[in-house]
Structures are given as structure tokens and as C-alpha cells.
Fold each of these.
Amino acid sequence: MGETPMGRAFTRPERDLVPDDELAVLRELADRVRELTEATVLTAVDSAEAAAVSAEVAALTARLNARRREAPPFNTTGTGRMGRQIGNPVTGLINPIAPPVEVEVGDDGIARAEITLNDAYEGPPTFVHGGVSALILDQVLGMATAAAAGPAVTAGLELRYRRPTPLGVPLRIEGKASRVEGRRVYAGATISDPEGRVTVEATATFVLLGP
Amino acid sequence: MGETPMGRAFTRPERDLVPDDELAVLRELADRVRELTEATVLTAVDSAEAAAVSAEVAALTARLNARRREAPPFNTTGTGRMGRQIGNPVTGLINPIAPPVEVEVGDDGIARAEITLNDAYEGPPTFVHGGVSALILDQVLGMATAAAAGPAVTAGLELRYRRPTPLGVPLRIEGKASRVEGRRVYAGATISDPEGRVTVEATATFVLLGP
């Protein structure tokens, strides 16, 4: 791979900055939309009621779009750039697509999270979609890498699925950057089930951003 | 990897079956919730209005939950089991998390899709989250594999990120199973930008389900 395309500057986006008090309100809104998302996947109301709710949802969307940003905002107080990306589809507190996974990077350099995934993330019946596991691991690997060496983008990601990952129970995710070589960072991460068995294992290569 | 855990039967879920006319209504509902999701990520309304909308969203969720299924329903007429999984987080028409990616498998065995991703799928500013690309590729690889050899689960997935994948423009995704060896199927897939350049390349190993 040529480094140029992946190494290009992602670094100076102009974004609205949302202070913590506004973030709390937007987070609440996203939590409610998450619940609506799960309800949409599981509802068994009759078609007339579903259609009536659709119309009401459209009206609420119009209210939110009355003032709309050009791009997702950032938060002022999150840790590192990834911590500020509140619109992120894995960790983003204001993004209803994100479970959201709350990642903490310890002094030992290990990025840790615990998450219970609902039916909206289902792949094989009753289990987490393999691609959802990949999505979460990519993010945790990126955050471990950012903590160890600075912001970076994924160049390669390798996943080994050891056993099915269950929905509806707390999963543990851990990731750590193992090695920095020039602009490349190597990292590993796992998802474990409540019995402590690794369900998915990932290794990744990142390319550091910036000059 | 022991094959036993991944090879366990995912094959006989008891699911409600949604006929096409009900599916159309639920699909409409999911489309509206998708728009609400994007609006949630981008809204700049004041906190009072955001809080008011939150409360209304909660009320709509309660209406949908008045009759709630135990698990996501299937559709009766989709192609193959994956085609029937209307709650799937990549292709599922009734899942607001899914973009949704509409995949068609041709007579040549190639699974093809075209999708434009909005700001809710952002990773590096203005680009698709690397994990979202992984999520989509895993699904397309699985569908190409299912078409070639039958339903299967991912055992291994390898991604190479060649250049950033842009948001807001039509992306082309193609996948194909290349080889079947016993219960293992090998497949490859790519995401290409509107200029036809491959942005992400994936290879995967699947394990066939069933007896």
C-alpha cells in the first residue's frame, strides 16, 4: 500500500464544538432514538399504527433539521480527538447507531470497555453480527493506538472468530498497542463473553496521522 | 480454532414471519427512523427543543412497544436466509442501524451493492469509519458465500485499507466466494469509490452451517 492516500491529513476538520451541558441533552436524545431503533426492529403493532408512528417520526426529524449542522459536532472536553468525536458510530454519545461503547484507556495502555448489545446488532440468530464485532474492535484498537502513539488510521485489520458472541449479556472488550515502528503501530484486541472466553480476536496495523 | 463452537446450529430460530405488505410499512418506519438518526447527529436546535423532541421520541417508542416481539422477525419472501433477515444491521430493511445495503447476487456468483453513507457512519472526519467498511464487507462476503455454498458464519476476516472511503458519494461493493474446501469457504470483496479505485479490500474464511 502507498502510504500517501491513507496518510493524508484528516487532521483539521472545522467542526462545531458542543459544551458538556448541550452534550448531555443531545446524549439523552440519542438514547431515546436508540430505544426507538430497537422498538422499530421488534414492534408487532398493526400496520395502521406503524404508519401513524412513521408520520410522527418524520415530524420530529423536521423539528431537529430546523437547525442542522454541516457535519457532526465535536465535544470540547473528551480525551484525545477520538474522545471528542461524539458522532462516532461506535463510541459516539450523540449517534443512535453507536451502542454506544464507552472506552477507557488505563495507565497500563489497555483500552477497556463493557457493552451489552441488543437485537438491533444481530447477525446469526441470537448472536452478534460478525461485522459489528469488527466495527467495535476497530474502534477500540484505534483508541489504544491513539493513546500509545497518537491519532492514526487503520491500514490492516485481521479478525479471528473463535465462538459466537452472544447478544443481551455484558461483553468485555480489551485492546492494546503492542509495537510502534516508524509511522506504523501494531495493536491487538479481544471480545470476551461473560464466562471470560474470547469470542473474537483482532490484530491491526495503523498508520499515524499528521506530519 | 475448534470448529464446534462456530459450527453449532444457528439454523432453527423461531421467528415471526412478516409478509411483504407489512414489511413495506415497517420499512417505511425504519426509513423515517434512519432520517431521525442522521438528524440527531447533525441537529443544532437549542437544548429546550432537543429535550422536547426527546420526550416525543420516548412516547413513540412506547407506542411501538405496546406490542413487541421476542426477537427480530424474518420476511417470508427474501432470497435465502440472509435475504429474509430483515432485522440485519447491514441489509435489514426494518433496522434503522442498517444503511441499508441492498445486495444482489448475480448468476456469476458476484454479490453486488451500491451504497451512499451519511454522516452517521463517519470515522476520520469526512470519511467512512473503517469498522463500518468491515461491517459491510463481512455481510457482502457472507452473502456471496451463502449463494455459492450455503449459509455460513465468519471464521476469519482480513481487511486492507488502501485509501480513505468517502462519505456522501455512491460506493460500489463486490464480493465473491472463490473456493470451497470441505466445510470451509474462501471469499473476497472490495469497496470502490466513484472513480473506481478500491478503497478497502477484504478476504474471509467462512464455516458452513448445518449437518
Amino acid sequence: MRKLTFFTLLLTATSFIGCDNVAKPTTQSGIEKPAFDLETAKKEITEVNKQFMELIAKGDSAGLANLYTSDAKVLFTGAPAVSGRAGIQTVFGNFIKSGVTKVDLKTVDLFGTEDFLVEESAVLIYVKEQMVAEEKALVVYKKEDGKWKLFRDMTNANTPQH
Amino acid sequence: MRKLTFFTLLLTATSFIGCDNVAKPTTQSGIEKPAFDLETAKKEITEVNKQFMELIAKGDSAGLANLYTSDAKVLFTGAPAVSGRAGIQTVFGNFIKSGVTKVDLKTVDLFGTEDFLVEESAVLIYVKEQMVAEEKALVVYKKEDGKWKLFRDMTNANTPQH
């Protein structure tokens, strides 16, 4: 009888340990995942935008393409969608060749989860010191190699174009 | 001793029940949440698009505004962003008054989680039987009252507009 009781108590303890494991937030592979924090994400997206603006100023289309995920798609205004980094690099190459010297990005709205972030931003495009277009953007970010990267990027004009 | 053993067994059983509850996906309030299934979500979004097309054909701007969340924002091309259902209803009212009789929506891409869905779609706009614009859209959906509703909706043209 004493033996049985000890065994039962052991079983009880084990089942409590089991509960504790289940309650922790884990990925499907069982690796612990840090809790998502939107304020931290906001700072990370501000940093991505800063890099984007610096790369435009430098005319670095390859650097710009690397801010996008390998499976990214840009949905810019006045052209069909373009998928993948090689295509995106060409898009930015042409954009820079067209005379753009500066892009100003300002986050209007940011929401999402650890899976996807969505940003609405205000976009000003400059040729030399002249502002040539006032646009808005809707950008979906996804993590790749532990870093938020642009996964979908759409823009349009704030005023009629015809 | 017999009494203690019975009590211990009862405790063991209780802790197993506890584990079972913890293992189920629940919201923070403890209410059970059904597992997210993208295929089901795809069917639901196809249904929303069907309703959207029917409401355009009927010229029902109030019905269209009700497909959006109460905190929705439309980011249509050639105009600043418009927030909230009243504003969105006006946008669709003007759109219908401008002569649009039909909008054709086709899902190109859909991804997301139970928190947000993101759809890329191909949009054809008709005045009477004449196709007048070929656009693409990036739409973010959020659940409101248990139904997927449009939360952000952005469009632009596939060809240069000037």
C-alpha cells in the first residue's frame, strides 16, 4: 500500500510538470518564442525605413532589394506586380535612373502580430531638391533570418494622375 | 492510508483534466478559439468578394461600407486615405455616380493568420459593358462580429496614368 501511494504521488508530480511545459509559449518545433511587442516592432520598422531612405540616397538598388524577403512582391503604381529580388532590384535601378534622388518615408499606422506587420506610410519622392510625387504606401513585413523585411509593398498617388 | 490513496488518485485525475484544458487553443479570456484554417478563410474571402461585386452591381454604397470594419481605411488611388464607414460609403456613392456598373475581383494571393488576412487581387472596373480600368488591390481583413471584413483596402493602376 505504501508503495502504491508513493507511485501515485510521483505520477501527480509528473503530471504537474507536464502542465507547466504545455503552458509555455513555444513554436511548433518546441523552441521558445519571445513574446511579441508592437513597440519594439515599431522601432525595428523605423530602422528599416531609415535604411531604405539611405539606400535611395546612395542609389543602391541591390541594397534596396535586400530589404525585401526572397519571396517579396512589389505592387507599385502604374505597373504590374514584380516578384523576387532580381526583379525588385531592376525596378529600383530604373527608379534611380529616372532621376529620383530622395524618398521620404513616414509611418502613419503600424499593426500586426509576430507573423506579419502592416504599415501605412506617407511617401514623398524627390528629383534633386524638387518634390515630384506625394504617395501613400501599404507595406506587409515578414521576418526573414530574424529581421523584418518587406514582403508586399504597394504605393499609389494621393492626387488624380490624369 | 486507504483514504490518503483515494485522495491522491483524485488529485492525479484532476491535474490531468487541468492539462487537457491548458493544451487547447484558447483566447486570453479563456474562451475556446477554433484552429485557423487558410482554406476555410479563402472560401470566406471569395464569399466577401462575391458580395462586393453584387453590391456594386446594385449600386448599394451603404451595403459596400458594411463590408468594412468600423475602423477601416480605404487607400484608393488618386485620393487621400478615407477612414470610417460614413466616409467609405461616400467614396462608393461617388464611385457609382461616376458611372461604374461592374467591378470584377479575382484573388491572386491570400495569406495570413486568424488575426489578419492579406489578399492581393486583380480588379477590373466597368462603365456599362466597357472595361475602363485594370487595377490591382492589396486588402487587409480583420474579423468583426465573427466575420472577415475589409480593414485596409488599397488599389492602383497597372499602367501609367499620365
